[in-house]
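Render this sequence as a predicted structure.
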Amino acid sequence: MAENETRRDTASLQRLTLGATVVVSSTGSGAFEQLMLNGRHALLADEPRAVGGNDIGPGPYELLLMSLGSCTSMTLQMYARHKNWPLAQVVVRLRHAKVYAEDCVDCEKPAARIDRIEREIEVIGALDAGQRSRLLQIADQCPIHRTLSSRIDIRTTAV
């Protein structure tokens, strides 16, 4: 494909999702609209109208929070099912913010800010206090939480 040709056909983009590859492509509709593909699903992302998007899908930080929330819920459900605990439902509420480090000496510098994700977990079911406490501990073991909490090495190449 020539460098100046666009790829707008979902089927041709979907073919790029070999193995565990995810493909994200601008759609050409709107300032920020993105098509996200994984070989089985097609989702849309965008920015809110307040920042120039069309708000046709979640924004990048919302998608990040949704990934953490869904992984947390799935991990707790899997653990409870394995233990035969009566977990009926998990509800996870998340918020992201840029905040200053608590002992911030140079607060006026952008590097003094850190990303903070606040996660509230509601477990519904006839669980005792010990089971509820253990589920909150297990929440930190979800794969997305572990990835976000670890050192991440992102390598970018041009193709």
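Summary. The chain has a mean pLDDT of 91. Residues 10-51 form one domain.
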